[in-house]
Amino acid sequence: MKKLLFTDLDGTLLDLETYSFKQSLGAIERLKSAGVPIIFCSSKTKSEQEFYRQALDINDPFIVENGSAIYIPKGYFSSSVPFNTFYTGDYEVIQIGNSVDNVRSTLKQLKQEMSLGFNVYEDLAVEKVSDITGLDNDAASRAMQRDYSETILEGEVHEDFYINLSAGGYRCIPGSKYKTIVDARANKGRAVSILTSLFKKKWGEIETYGVGDSTNDAEMLAETDTAYLVQKPNRSWSSLTGIEVNTISEVGPLGWKLVVEEMLN
Ligand code: MG
Fold first, then answer.
1. Angle at which helices 137-144 and 46-56 pack, to 10 degrees?
2. What is each CA distance from 168 to 77, 113, 152, 156, 163, in whole angstroms?
3. Which residues have beta carbons under 5 A from ligand 1 (an ion)?
4. Which of 117, 218, 255, 257 is the S-S candidate for 27 at Cβ 3.0 to 4.6 Å?
C-alpha cells in the first residue's frame, strides 16, 4: 500500500534552535527512494517552506500557516481537484482560511480599542524580527511574507484580547515560541484530510503517517492513520490529549529519523 508522510517542520524535521535539517537528510533520501510523498504541514509561510523544499529537492504539496492553505504543484494530481482553487505561480491553491489583510485589520482594531502594546511581523523591520526570532535577515524576511496569519512577536496581551479575537472569527495557536492568530476556519487537520482524499483518488487505498513535536500538531496527527510525537529539547513530550500517538524517545530531527525507519520497515 502507498504511504504518505505529513510532517511538522520546527522542532520535528528541523532542529528547534538552529533550523538545521542536517540530521534528517538520510531519512529524506530513504523516503524519496521509497516514493513516499513528504508533505510539510507547519505554521511556516509559503516562502519559508519553499526555501526548505528547494534545499531538500522536495516537490510534493504543502500546507502553510497552520492549515490556512494547501499549495499543490501544477499537474501533481492528474485529475482535477474538486475544491475551489486558484492559481499562483507554479501552484494550484486550496485556501481554507481568510487572507492576512483581514487578520491584520482585526488586530489593529483590537490593539487600538484595548490600548495594547504588542507587535506582529507587519509592525517590525526585518532587523528587529531577526533580533527577536534569531532568524538571519533572509529567513526573517521569508517569515514576514505572510498570506494568511500574523504572529505576536513582542508585548503582552491579556485574556480579554483572546475573547474578542474568537468573537471576531479568529483563533490563537500557540507555537513552540510565539502565538499566531489565524482565521478560525484554518485547520491543519482539515488540510490533511483534503490532501488525503486527493491522494486516495490518485492511488486508491493509502496509509497516512504524521509526525510532530507540539500541541499545535494535534489536529494534523488526529487525521493520520499512524501518528508520532518526537521529544522537545528537554527530552519531554508535549501533552496531547484525546488522540492516539506513538511517542519517540529522541529529540526533534533524531526522532524524525526513527519515525521514518519505523514507517519504512
Ligand atoms: Mg513544531
1. 130
2. 36, 14, 17, 20, 9
3. 8, 10-11, 213-214
4. 257
pLDDT in tens, 42-89: 999 999 999 999 999 999 999 999 999 999 999 999 888 888 899 999
The residues that bridge with 154 in the sheet, in sequence order, are 119
Spell out a b/e string for 220-256, using b for 16 or more CB atoms within 10 Å of the CB, else e: bbbbbebbbbbbbeeeebbebeeeebeebeebbbbbb
Side chain identity at residue 241, one-letter code = T
Confidence label for 136 from pLDDT (cuts 50, 70 and 90): very high
238, 255 contact by CB (below 8 A): no
Q: Say how many Å lie between the CA of residue 114 and the centre of ligand 1.
A: 31
Annotated catalytic residues are: 8
pLDDT of 158 above 90: no
Amino acid 159 reads E
Q: What is the mean pLDDT of the chain?
A: 95
CA 8 – ligand 1 centroid, Å: 6
